[in-house]
């Protein structure tokens, strides 16, 4: 199979002929239909993720078609179109039994701890516990974004912060996670304000229905959010994993507000200095979130398939496997609006 392999940090990914994976007992192999290029892949590319060793095939936002089935799989057969979370749980431990697959101690992460989906084929262990059928109404390029950004945001808003209709949602960072938060927040009935430093991203957010936008390069962004929302947001989503934006998210909240850390803190931002006086005086709640269990996919997929939320504006670039390096490098600076998805694995 063709795969994009990383052999040195920040080096161009090499398009190589790799061995086809075989399904493990209980697992399947997918022909990758689409794979998103995410900021978390950039952390892999730069060497900021301690779980990754080289050489390595990144890529964790994928959907695919089952092409091989391992012994013991009961729910899936060849030809099924499926989607998987980027955290693949064992399905058998106490945490999995309690529905908390994202903290499974035996988890496998394609693109991080296992070969990923910047390739024509990818292996998925524990298929019965991890795969969800992909509705025909959801195209592969959109489904790829559901593997990480959209599902992580959905879990952040509904499973962690319990965003309610009529509340203000502040989205700090207008990239892929931020656009997903904007679209899903509006679908849940919230009023949404988006903060970024890139004018194009703010214009993009307005076009997608943001109730307000704030240019963080033009002054105190948190103060601007508080002014625009009449005292602060009820919920804030931090979408970058950076100390400054995390502080902005906390300071943007009204008293008793909730902040969800969606952006991945890595490298220099793994340890942050934050305004704990604001947390204390405002009696704020801080939630961490990472991925979403597979059992929570169906309601979100039903929402998309029924047309109650249109996530298609997220995908602004359909690219070939050979173009992944350029998209990763773009995260070194303010990236363009929307997300890139690999849909051509032959070029």
Automatic annotation (TrEMBL):
Domain Enoyl reductase (ER) residues, every copy: 10-342
PANTHER family documented for this protein: ALCOHOL DEHYDROGENASE-RELATED (PTHR43401:SF5), L-THREONINE 3-DEHYDROGENASE (PTHR43401)
Protein name: Alcohol dehydrogenase
Gene3D superfamilies: Medium-chain alcohol dehydrogenases, catalytic domain (3.90.180.10)
Cofactor(s) it depends on: Zn(2+)
GO MF terms, alphabetically ordered: oxidoreductase activity, acting on the CH-OH group of donors, NAD or NADP as acceptor; zinc ion binding
SUPFAM superfamilies in alphabetical order: GroES-like, NAD(P)-binding Rossmann-fold domains
Keyword annotations from UniProtKB, A to Z: Metal-binding, Oxidoreductase, Zinc
Secretion signal span: none
InterPro entries, per the entry: ADH-like_C, ADH-like_N, ADH_Zn_CS, ER, GroES-like_sf, NAD(P)-bd_dom_sf, Zn_alcohol_dh
UniProt record similarity statement: Belongs to the zinc-containing alcohol dehydrogenase family.
